[in-house]
C-alpha cells in the first residue's frame, strides 16, 4: 500500500509552480515560493524522493505534428480473463496512435485517448487495430471538438 505524504503550503506552492513551468530555474522557483534557492532545491529533491514528483515532460502540440484529431474511445471486452486483458494492453502499447490507456470501472473495461491526423486516419485505426483484436466486443468513439481546459503535462 502506498503511503501518503503530508504537504505543507510551501510544498503545494512548489508543485503548483512546477506544474505551470517545470523548466524554470531553481532560483526563479525559490523566488516565486518565498524560499532561499538551497531550501527550495532541498524541498524539490524531497518531493522527488517521496515519489510525489515522478518526472518532467515536454508538452507537445501534436496537431503541429499532424495528429490534431483527438478521440476518446471506450472499449468493452467479451472475455475478462487476466490473459485477455494483458493481450489487449500489449496490443495497445504497440499502437502509437494511443496516447493514453486507462482501465476503468463500469460497463466497459478501457478508456483510450487516440490522436491521429483526421477522420480517415481514425477509421484506419478503428478498423485495422481495434477491429482486429480478439475479445473486443464494443467500441464507442467520442470525438473531441474543442478543449477549453487541458492541464495534462
UniProtKB/TrEMBL annotation:
Residue ranges of every copy of the HTH asnC-type domain listed in the record: 7-68
UniProt xrefs under InterPro entries: ArsR-like_HTH, AsnC-type_HTH_dom, Dimeric_a/b-barrel, Tscrpt_reg_AsnC-like, Tscrpt_reg_AsnC/Lrp_C, WH-like_DNA-bd_sf, WH_DNA-bd_sf
GO cellular component entries: cytosol
A GO MF label: sequence-specific DNA binding
GO biological process, one term: alanine catabolic process
Pfam families per record: AsnC_trans_reg (PF01037), HTH_24 (PF13412)
Segments traversing the membrane: none
Alphabetic keyword roster: Activator, DNA-binding, Transcription, Transcription regulation
The name this protein goes by in its record: Leucine-responsive regulatory protein
Origin species: Pseudomonas gingeri
Amino acid at each position: 500500500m502506498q503511503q501518503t505524504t503530508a504537504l505543507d503550503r510551501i510544498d503545494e506552492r512548489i508543485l503548483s509552480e512546477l506544474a505551470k513551468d517545470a523548466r524554470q530555474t531553481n532560483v526563479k522557483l525559490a523566488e516565486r515560493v518565498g524560499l532561499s534557492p538551497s531550501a527550495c532545491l532541498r524541498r524539490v529533491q524531497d518531493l522527488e524522493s517521496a515519489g510525489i514528483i515522478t518526472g518532467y515532460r515536454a508538452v507537445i502540440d501534436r496537431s503541429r505534428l499532424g495528429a490534431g484529431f483527438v478521440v476518446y474511445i471506450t472499449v468493452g471486452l467479451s472475455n475478462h480473463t487476466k490473459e485477455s486483458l494483458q493481450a489487449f494492453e500489449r496490443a495497445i502499447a504497440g499502437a502509437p496512435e494511443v496516447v493514453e490507456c486507462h482501465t476503468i470501472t463500469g460497463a466497459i473495461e478501457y478508456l483510450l485517448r487516440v490522436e491521429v491526423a483526421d477522420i480517415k486516419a481514425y477509421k484506419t485505426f478503428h478498423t485495422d487495430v481495434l477491429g482486429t483484436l480478439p475479445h473486443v466486443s464494443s467500441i464507442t468513439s467520442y470525438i473531441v471538438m474543442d478543449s477549453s481546459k487541458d492541464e495534462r503535462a
